[in-house]
Amino acid sequence: MTTAVTTRGGKTYHDDLAIVREELDKCMKCGNCMAVCPVYGADRVETSVTRSKIAVAEAVLDGNLDLDDPQVVAMLFNCLVCKSCMTSCPTKVNFDRIMLALRAALVRKNGMPWLKRLIFSTLKHPKLFDASMRVGAALQGVAFKTGKEGRMISPRAPFAKLGSPIGLDGDRQMPPLHVVPLRERVDEVIKVEGATMRVAFFTGDSLNYFYPQTGQDLIEVLAENKIEVHIPKAQNCCGVPVLVHGDIDTVRQLARSNIDTFEATGCAYLITGCGSCGGAWQHDYPELLAADPVYGPKAVYWAERTYDISTFLTRVVTLRQPKGRIERTVTYHDSCHLKKSMKVAAEPREILRSIPGLTFKEMAAPDACCGSGGSYVLSHYETASTIGRKKAEDIDRTQADTVSTGCPACMMQLLDNVHRAGGGQKVTHFISLLAESYRLEKKGD
Amino acid sequence: MVNQTIIEQLETLAGKENVLTGKVDLVAYSYDATADMPRQTPDVVVLPTSAEMVQEIVHLARRNKIAIYPRGAGTNLSGGAIPLKKGIVLSFQKMNKIVDVDPANLTAVVQPGVVIAALNSAVAPFGLIYPPDPGTVATATMGGSAAENSGGLRGLKYGVTKNYIMGMEVVLASGEKVRFGGKTVKNVTAYDFSNLFVGSEGTLGIITELTAKLIPAPKYRRTMMGVFKTLADAGNAVAGIIKAQVIPATLEIMDRMTIRTVEEFARIGLPVDAEALLLIEVDGMAEEVVRAEAEAVMQVVRDNNGDLKTAETDQERDQLWTARRNALPALASLNNTVVLEDATVPRSRITDMLVACETIGKKYNLTLGTFGHAGDGNLHPTILCDKRNQDEINRVHKAVDEIFETALRFGGTLSGEHGIGMAKMKYLGDELGQTGLDLMRRIKESLDPEYILNPGKMVPLREA
């Protein structure tokens, strides 16, 4: 799990840039990161790759470059925080810590840009955030047109023209915001007859607002496995979206509130269906709260009890074998945060292979980043698309009709890219295929 | 001097998007993978997209007496890519096309920015490989590895980069472009230019295209590990394997310090009381031959009191390789600076050299582990130190001096595969003598009289 994090005078690297020096020192500048960094792969200049970002961080700490120099800031945000470099680093540099420490230091120095401040402040007030997401859902029809089946939306003219520099052109496909989010659709406790276990489901915002059906599928699968599911309504955003923008106060507030909420469920396991959310519970919360005497130990407690749905189903309990046939050829994309942060890669494949009728086809470089990076795709649409195009081509070459993954942010990026550059494959969370198989089985198919 | 006019001219001839002058960009090209080297930011980074563009840049640089530093992926270990005298870094990361793969002639034509692993992926469907495999295959470029004459783990059986470069296109310091060699197996036309430019570290010309030799991929392989209680046993086993007329593809050694550190780092069950470990892999096209070679190797290991492990499956092979793969990362985890040398001795002196390295480490009170390519005598004495401890750094420099002195005394050489660059320039005279140094200078000055190509590397600048 998480390697030990240094605290100094009640501070972590999130509060004091100097603490991250130990990570900078580990870097040998060998350049192994160049083989896997998706941004370098697209840009082909060394300014984009990890070891150079570390060299620039050294220059900042040594006083040779200013942290708020516009070029330094631009370089800092030209990173997906996908952690790919960390998997090929021979000296195990925790580059995510370096990046987060720099971004947090920048916010400390210059404050948060007003737009980000405005957006992030709503996260601190769950009711306000929820209300604004619903207003957005109600109004999206003004700017977006709905595709067949209502599963995706695309920008309408004239918004398509305005949005084209950031990829919001008429060809962009995105999941719609749902007026009734997941946590409003389901009860707080899903009782199951003959339940052998109780778990708490951390939905995260993407499953709550963009992919509520996926969240319902996840709950259904747990119920099929005789597990009682708690979905506390008071839960918030995991905080990763603000953490990566250096808003440490907000993410700590969200972390503490989420810990309180899940403590109240009395469940012994916390289940996620999103690599970023699970990674937050497993790694970011314990690191953010390492110097907090009350919440620090609680964060560690929950880190050890957080499982991706696939790990839980295949390692903690015994998966009830699905019987409904799904005659589809499916490939699987490894979400960066699921594989590189939560170390989950074999489990979703095991689940897919367990579904009768399903042909599983591995794509080339399944763990190459898709280019989403949360808000990176919005701020760096061109680079994100270069990365996404390669992914779409790899998906296409498998001749699969469906691409599955374990992360809603990847699902959004894949949706856009398989329609632009791939074969328009169906994009789904792996758990939805399992849920579908269980449903078909019940129908007696 | 690079001034705004020069920058604008570079932008005109290379395109604005291929000329980088931002402070952050310059920091990104101010170093390579060599430890304990000064960093220097260039004045400008240019990413050419054609040989003609390179010619124009050289003309411009020559007229204005600006230094040019050709750069591949910047992964070399001798300070070869550091822009010591400022000027222009010429980065080949955008000239990365595989021009031609020719299975009938077993050749490939590539641009210099092609990554070695990318070439191997492209030729794999034809059942072919490009054998040179430096530790950085996944990142290093063909141009960079040709300029550095990189080696790797398979050097003993398959040779090094120079054995696989059949032809080139080179832009000279004059701005002229020259082509030589090609797809023919035999070629004795004119001087052997390929062998002049391979390993010239960017000091004689700028490589803009390469014709590489490919070979059929070996179909069978067997992997073994021998663990020895004494260095003498390990050394005798190396000699014994060669004497048994087996040339393994890989014959790697690790000393006690490395074994202990790897075990501490990765917990893979290595015996920490062992003095040396050999990783041996034999390969070939015929199963019978490979099996016979493996059996011969196993006999030699047993005859020399070695504890033998063999791999029957890919998974077991991977386990045996784990120790070797972890050697550098494990050692590197001990401190913030890794001084990695590549002193090389005739393989009959491997044991002597291992003992000498250990003694030198002790003498200067340094953390030093040695691993490397026992089969070809190419060792990597690796010193782990604290870059902020000046006293320790001074001791490191003395130890490195002594390591090279010892290698030369054993009839060896300063560098087996990392090159001279700026890291080992001061030792060159010890190996070549004054006549050798003069010859180097004469060659340098006949091709690059104004020292505009990678100045300050291999051949010292003339005192002004």
Describe the structure using short key phrases.
heterodimer, A: 445 residues, alpha/beta, Fumarate Reductase Iron-sulfur Protein, Chain B, domain 2, Rossmann fold, four-stranded parallel β-sheet, 23 helices, 11 strands, 9% strand, B: 464 residues, alpha+beta, Uridine Diphospho-n-acetylenolpyruvylglucosamine Reductase, domain 2, Uridine Diphospho-n-acetylenolpyruvylglucosamine Reductase, domain 3, Alpha-Beta Plaits, seven-stranded antiparallel β-sheet, five-stranded antiparallel β-sheet, 15 helices, 18 strands, 36% helix, globular
Give me the number of helical elements of chain B.
Answer: 15
Low-confidence stretches of chain A: none
Q: Main sheet of chain A, how many strands, which sense, barrel?
A: 5 strands, mixed
Class based on secondary structure composition and strand pairing of chain A: alpha/beta
Rg of chain B, rounded, reads 23 Å
Q: Give me the count of strands of chain A.
A: 11
Terminal CA distance of chain A: 42 Å
Overall tally of domains of chain A: 4
The CATH topology of the largest domain in chain A is given as: Rossmann fold
If helices are DSSP runs of H or I spanning 4 or more residues, what is the number of helices of chain A?
Answer: 23
CATH class of the largest domain in chain A equals: Alpha Beta
- Percentage of residues in DSSP E strands of chain A: 5-15%
What is the total number of structural domains of chain B?
A: 4
SSE layout and pairings?
The complex is a heterodimer of chains A (445) and B (464).
Chain A: H1 21-26, H2 38-43, H3 50-61, H4 70-77, H5 84-87, H6 95-110, H7 114-123, H8 126-143, E1 144-146, E2 153-155, H9 159-163, H10 182-185, E3 189-190, E4 197-202, H11 204-210, H12 212-224, E5 227-230, H13 240-243, H14 248-263, E6 270-272, H15 275-288, H16 295-303, E7 306-308, H17 309-316, E8 329-333, H18 336-341, H19 346-353, E9 359-360, H20 376-379, H21 381-397, E10 402-405, H22 408-420, E11 426-429, H23 430-442
Parallel strand pairs in A: 4-5, 4-6, 6-7, 8-9, 8-10, 10-11
Antiparallel strand pairs in A: 1-2, 3-5
Helix pairs in contact in A: 11-12, 12-23, 15-16, 17-19, 21-22
Chain B: H1 4-14, E1 19-20, H2 23-28, E2 44-46, H3 51-63, E3 68-71, E4 88-91, E5 98-102, E6 107-110, H4 116-123, E7 128-129, H5 142-148, H6 155-158, E8 165-172, E9 177-181, H7 193-197, E10 205-213, E11 215-216, E12 220-228, H8 231-243, E13 250-255, H9 256-266, E14 276-284, H10 287-303, E15 307-311, H11 314-325, H12 327-332, E16 337-340, H13 350-363, E17 367-373, E18 378-385, H14 390-409, H15 428-447
Parallel strand pairs in B: 2-4, 3-4
Antiparallel strand pairs in B: 1-2, 5-6, 6-10, 7-11, 8-9, 8-10, 12-14, 12-15, 13-14, 13-17, 16-18, 17-18
Helix pairs in contact in B: 1-3, 8-10, 8-13, 13-14
